[in-house]
Amino acid sequence: MQEDVRYMALIPGHHNRWREVRKAVGTGPIIYWMSRDQRLEDNWALFHAWVRAREAGRPMGVVFCLTPRYSLAGPRHYRFMIHGLQEMVAKAQNMGMPFFILRGDPVRTLPPFLEEWKISLTVTDFDPLREKGQWMEAVMERSECDFEEVDAHNIVPCWQASPKQEFSAATFRPKVRLHLPEYMPHLPPRPGKFHRWPGEVPNADLDSALKELGDRPDDRWVGGETEAHRVMRDFANSGLQGYASQRNDPNLNAQSSLSPYLHFGMVSAQRVAVEVDASSAPPSDKDAFLEELIIRRELSDNFCHYNPLYDSTEGFPAWSRVSLREHLDDRREHLYTLEELEAGRTHDPLWNAAQVQMVREGKMHGWLRMYWAKKILEWTEGPDQALRTVNELNDRYEMDGRDPNGYVGAAWSIGGVHDRAWGERPIFGKVRYMNLNGARRKFDVDLFVSRFSDHPDR
Ligand SMILES: Cc1cc2nc3c(=O)[nH]c(=O)nc-3n(C[C@H](O)[C@H](O)[C@H](O)COP(=O)(O)OP(=O)(O)OC[C@H]3O[C@@H](n4cnc5c(N)ncnc54)[C@H](O)[C@@H]3O)c2cc1C
Q1: Would you say residue 457 has pLDDT above 60?
Q2: pTM of the predicted protein model
Q3: Which fold has domain 313-451?
């Protein structure tokens, strides 16, 4: 048995995926504090906690803190997340693995839980955003157990891909590619047997949490691992073909729609990469998709992890900060308030349609997000206000919002992060510019506008 356990700790792909945050001495059960990676399949943090429990011969369980508020997430996001939690709680029960749901902020609910069960080690999933870091610090201050952190979100662990903030995809790509053979093919094994938890596991009353949110039966988003895997398989089997040439046309349904599932961790990016790699789609489509899924997505984690100013104009590169400052006093032909933007009431029909798509469907097409954000720079008083507005609308309405990809997408559009300097022009300075004529050259703008010209949801 002991040999078996040591072998498991040496599983390929596990090495350097975790790091010790605090060492303490204790003999109680081990807990996985699930937060960013809300799944039981293909979850390196869950597997790591299970290995630790097997090595020490202790019980292990999972805890999730259901906060009443998180950033600008609304009922739609919460419903999506709770669907996923319901599925996991049922599945965990079948596996014989305790799954605790704590209602409330982790800083308030987790320390008493750790103390009550005499937890010796808390394993948690890595998240480069400020909120999770602050939660973790506060929980550690109020508790005494070991803490270990596992990057269960990135294919190549963030700290392993690069030890510093990368300048662009061009500098990041070779570093990630170097590590891919070590990490991409090896998915975590499924946890097996569990030692008996030393007490009663309370019922996770998620139905009442759902009821509190009210009904919205027309919601197109269904959360959970089963649905995430269905979307992934449908895309790998039949949606991927044509991705390279069609993904930038908002009238075609050529993107995967996986971002909300990836954001909530309901599917592992590693699993998606493996499925796509094995699909029979043309290599050019696979390559284009894997560039987005691996390089662009993991570059966002790199930026937010190493740059604490990820959602501020202070985090922009020096060239764009200087250039945008030089153009602060440029005349703005149109200025809109947050309310006018939120309601999609500008002079630009394409922009309004994109805004309506986001509000109505919870997901704006990827190409349009760039156009949408850049126009906000043109129509607000300056880059600070523009960045705040983009992040606020994105976080409030996108199902995949409140994500490193969103903060980096906004910083790319407004502040040239991961981009290069372009020819100088009013307002934008050297930041890349986009306009309606460019959009017309790419796709049938009128067709897109006609799809979103009536907006019953607003
Ligand atoms: C202003 C702006 C805001 C954005 N906000 C978000 C956000 O809140 N959440 C979010 O996940 N993405 C965001 N993006 C990135 C991108 O637009 C979305 O990831 C993509 O459109 C999601 O749709 P999909 O899953 O169908 O993508 P697909 O084209 O099918 O791509 C597959 C996956 O690759 C990743 N990916 C694709 N494009 C990018 C990109 N440009 N940067 C980083 N990763 C990418 C995503 O994880 C995506 O799910 C934003 C981009 C911009 C310019």
Answers
A1: no
A2: 0.96
A3: DNA Cyclobutane Dipyrimidine Photolyase, subunit A; domain 3 (1.10.579)
